Amino acid sequence: MKRKGTGPDGLVIVDKPEGITSHGVVARLRRLAGTRKVGHAGTLDPMATGVLVIGIERATRLLGHLMLTDKTYEATIRLGQTTVTDDREGEVTASVPALGLERAAIDAGIAELTGEILQVPSKVSAIKIDGKRSYHRVREGEDFELPARPTTVHSFTVHGLREAVAEDGTAVLDLDVTVECSSGTYIRALARDLGAGLGVGGHLTALRRTRVGPYEVAGAHTLEQLEETFSVLPIGEAAAAAFPRWELGEEDARRLATGARLAAPGLGVAGPIAAFAPDGTFLALVEEKGEQARPVAVFVG
């Protein structure tokens, strides 16, 4: 049974704590929502915190489209050490003192990693290779390479730099950064590649996702808050926040509810458009294909 007043469909914007997997958050939400039909958009590692978008019931069908949105991260990059996982949870494989680095060199390295780039994901990512997760292959000791993938780093900004000494005595530099990027960008890989380019190695020591598309951490709920009051962003409001809105007339609303194609609204939008009936009911996500609007997911009927 669902808790009274939660509603059958919608998104929950969770502020994920450190130390729990994204799947663990989904399991908690299944219990709170009283349904097995729960999913998430965009995995966060156990070390990472911040915005995790959870779909309940029919809203799970929004998630694949939400994963195409841009994201913002706050992170700390440690220059001077390389780890097997490209983050602090992995074994240190190399240490090179980093205190001699000049700020100009760091800024130049960051500039090389900004814009449209080709990025080799971390081997401990969830990418599938022949149906098997990359991180599983790492745990089993396999030797393999991941191909580079195109991604876009809209901005990569340093807003803090601190000298520190690592546990093995290496003099390191910790950079506090903000990264705005397209979905599919690996912040661990940015840390790794920045350190490699500077000749000292690098890895991630902290990561917080503060935005996924229109959903920001300021509007997210902690798991403790959700245990007290389980609140769902209704599916219509979630769609209106994430996609351009298209108001339909009665006849077109009836036709779209059956999966029919309509004349395109002419919005010139490359991605999905949220179509609404005259009474405000969210009907479907559609895409403009030439002169037609083609439904990609219908949420009524």
Automatic annotation (TrEMBL):
Protein name: tRNA pseudouridine synthase B
Domain tRNA pseudouridylate synthase B C-terminal: 188-229
Domain tRNA pseudouridine synthase II TruB subfamily 2 C-terminal residue range list: 243-299
Any Pfam family the entry gives: TruB_C
Gene Ontology terms describing biological process: mRNA pseudouridine synthesis; tRNA pseudouridine synthesis
GO molecular function: RNA binding; tRNA pseudouridine(55) synthase activity
Catalytic activity, as annotated: uridine(55) in tRNA = pseudouridine(55) in tRNA
Residues passing through the membrane, by range: none
Gene name of the encoded protein: truB
Domain of life: Bacteria
Gene3D superfamilies (UniProt xref): Pseudouridine synthase, PUA domain
Family per similarity comment: Belongs to the pseudouridine synthase TruB family. Type 1 subfamily.
Top EC class for this record: isomerase
UniProt xrefs under InterPro entries: PsdUridine_synth_cat_dom_sf, PsdUridine_synth_N, PUA-like_sf, PUA_sf, tRNA_psdUridine_synth_fam2_C, tRNA_psdUridine_synth_TruB, TruB_C
UniProt keyword Ribonucleoprotein, yes or no: no
Residue numbers annotated as active site: D45
Protein function: Responsible for synthesis of pseudouridine from uracil-55 in the psi GC loop of transfer RNAs.
Native organism: Kitasatospora viridis
UniProt xrefs under SUPFAM superfamilies: Pseudouridine synthase, PUA domain-like
